[in-house]
Amino acid sequence: MKTKSVLTAALAFMSMSTFAQNTDGRIPAKGFAVFEANGHFQPYDFSRHAVGDNDIRIEILYAGICHSDLHHVFADWGAEEYPMVPGHEIAGRVVAVGKNVTRFKVGDYAGIGCIIGSCRHCDACEHDLEQYCEEGAVMTYHGIDRFNGDEHTQGGYSDTYVVAEDFAIKIPADAEIEKVAPLLCAGITSYSPIMQAGVKKGDKVGVAGFGGLGHMGVQYAVSLGAEVTVFDITDDKREDALRMGAVRYVNVNNPDELKGLDKQFDFILSTIPAKYEPVMYMKILKLDGQFGIVGLPAFRNMPSLSVADLVFQGHRKVFGSQIGGIKETQEMLDYSVAHDIYPEVEIIKADGAEIDKAYRNVLDGKVKFRYVIDMKTMK
Known about the structure:
The chain is of the alpha/beta class. 27% of the residues lie in helices and 26% in strands. It contains twelve helices and 19 strands. The strands form five sheets. Strands 3, 4, 5, 10, 11, 18 and 19 form a seven-stranded mixed β-sheet that branches. Strand 18, helix 12 and strand 19 form a beta-alpha-beta unit. Helix 5 crosses helix 6 (212-223) and helix 5 crosses helix 11 (326-338). Mean pLDDT is 93; it is low at 1-23.
C-alpha cells in the first residue's frame, strides 16, 4: 500500500509539472544581477517564458563563473544591456517537461551551456555547429531570444531556466553534479579544439594559460596519451599542473625555461585571456603543427598576428574555436564523466557579496580553478 501511494504521488507530481508547462503564464525566477557596468551583484526578480511543448524547465542547482561572464559584466567586448544575470555553465534537475519532450523526464539531471537556440537549418546548424549559426545563435544570457518573443535572455545565476530540449545536455545520474556546470563551457571550449586538432597518444601538446579552460585542456590531452607542457606567467600553479599529468611547466617570464623548445610541439592550445605574443607559440610548433586559440581577452588587450607572422612561420595551422555544438558538448560530457575528468572547483554561496568577491579573485588570478555557485543556498 505504501509503494502504491508513493507511485501515485510521483505520477501526480509529473502530471502537475507537465500541466504547468502548457499554461500561458510566465514562470517567476530570482537570481543575482548587475545593473550597470562594473556594478555589484544584487538580488533580482524576473520571469522566464512558459514551458512550451518542446521545452524543459530546470531547477538550477549549480552555476559556474566563467571569465567571459566578467567580460560581459564589465562590457569588455562592447556595449551591454542591464540588468544582466550572467551564467552559461548550468547544472540542474528537470522539474517540468513539455508534451513533445522525449529525451528528458522529471527528476533527470540536465545542463545548459552557452547557447539555447539556433535556426537549425543553415549549413553550420546542419553540421552540428550551432554556435556558428548563420542567423545567429541565441545566447544563454545577454541575448535576444527570437523564438520566444524577442525576450532578453538571463543566465544561470538564478533558480530556474526554461530551454528547448534540443539545446539541453543530458547529465548522467552518476555524475559529480557539483562539478559538472563548468564542463558546459570550460570543458567543451577546451575539448573541441583538441578534437579538431586530432590529438593522439604520443603527441607533444602545449597548453598556454592554466586557468579554468587550461586545466581542462591539460586533463583531456593527458587522457588521450599526449605529453603535455603547461605555459603560464607565474609559478603558483606549477605543482597543480604536474599533479594533473603535465610533464613540464614553463613560466614564460623566466627566459631560461623557454630555451630548447623551438619546433617541439604538435599542437598548442591557447586559453590566455590577456594580451600576449601568439608568434612566440607559433615558433615552438613543429612543421605542420597546429595552434588553436580559444582565449578571448578584452578588446583593449587583444593580441594580434600580422600577415608576416603567418608567412614566415609558414606550414603551421592557426585556428580559432568557439565552444562547441550541442552534439559535441554531449559527447564531451559523456567522455568527461566516463573518464572521471572534472574541473577543480570552489563552491560558494548564492550571495551578491560572495559573487563580487569571486569576480575580484578571478581578475587577480587567485582561483584554482573554477568558482561554482550553489544556487540551492539562495535565500
